[in-house]
Amino acid sequence: MYRFNTVYGGLLLSLLGLSPSVLAADYTVRLQFEKRPPKTALLYVPGDLGEQSQAVVDQVDKSFTESLVVAAPGQAVVFKNSDEVDHNIFANDMKSGARFDVGLMPPGGEKNIPVDWKADSLVRIGCKIHPKMRTYIAAVDAAYSKVMEFSSATSDYSISLEGVPDAAAQLLLRIPKYDPVVIDLNDPSTWTATLTKKGKTRGSFVLER
Amino acid sequence: MRTLLSRCGIFFAFIAIALTSESLANTPLSRPDPLLIEYPEDEPPSWREIQLGKTLFFDPRLSHDHSRSCASCHNPELGFGDGLPLSPGSDGQPLGRHTPSIYNLAWGSVFFWDGRAATLEEQALMPIVAEAEMNLPMAVLQERLTAVAHYRNEFNAVYEEGLTEETIGRALASFMRAIVSDNSPFDRHLAGDKNALGPEAKRGLALFVGKGRCIECHSGANLTDDSFHNLGLGGDDPGRAEVVDAPHLRGAFKTPGLRNVTLSAPYMHDGSLPNLLSVLEFYNRGGGEGHNRSDLIQPLNLTQRDINDLLAFMGALESPILIKRPEIPR
Question: Is the confidence at residue B136, as pLDDT, over 80?
Fold first, then answer.
């Protein structure tokens, strides 16, 4: 019954030309890792609500500027080199079929690569010259997304999610090498989850409103 | 007034850039931070797993004719090298590349001179099966180890899966990640001990990050950028270009870390430079004549005193690791 109302309310508002973000909710996510935390994670609401901003992967000081970039499948990722040295970005991910080589890119270079691999995938991106460099591209249609970064010294995190569209039905958590977590936003009884890596417990997830 | 202010602003911004440009591009030298090690299981291995890996590392069962262990080439008493330009292979002929030391690889992101292994687990199995090195099929090794009660017990105690190809790699990698050198005079200097370095080594450090431009590649806690560069050593080894399809990386090899570098002469991927003095003279000349040399390699105009100071600094990176050889189980 409750869900009915929200959806209808959202519809009504969009018909009236109001932005769906008017009906938005704030949540808090608590993450606890039992061992050393991962470097990065993505929380997102799947869906195609309006324009997704242009995905850009840039490089400075022999590192990527972002730990994770969200890109809509079918669109393009812009690769840039704002560094003082050459880079050679590539991906070679069997599972998603993401295989590309941006080639040798001098400082100031720029190149578009279409996201033509499997949707809903998380792909590691590297540099052939500087193997320490690492970032991820999440090929997802996201109505809302939040990239989180963790430090190896801290195992507990509390993250606020502001302005999650009220029409959102699902919240997904993607962490490299971890098993994905799917939360039903309409059913608070599913708002806790175990974080697992290849099936082994690695931490916990709690969503609060 | 406004123009004056904004001119000052530009002026100060300029100074700020000038002051930081050195550290902007390169990770500063620092002490190795255990929190930055990425363990495959997200936590350090148990003592027992490390001991198991250590026993395997010294066990000649890992070679076809029981003649050599990992430690034959990576000898802890010889800086985890063997003192030779090129180690003899299983057929007695010299191997294609020089045996590197293996200090502080726990922080490494890519392994071998050409970076063809992405993890230590993967790397550890490669010399065992390599025909020129230990020349032993994995199935035979598994049979050999299973026949030994000690290995059966230890593998079953440490790993849910027991003794498998994968757990052999994990045990060896766990031992190698424990080969950590982090108590050199330079580490004590970084920790604030003003007397840790003598005046030569202090000047050597300044040259290392300044006039000598070593920091361009030998950066971070282990004095390596874990990247690939061509120093113009020459020869026909394609190096990194054999692993990734990138012709510009022809003749480029991984920057070796410099911790305990004083212990592991001779040097370079081809073992062609017999000592650290010859390495510094090589850099001072502007590297080798080989094709495709990196632009980062330029003549340095170092004086004899500069060279001595740099040698003293490399000496201050020494913190030997004593390893008691394990008993090889029967």
Answer: yes
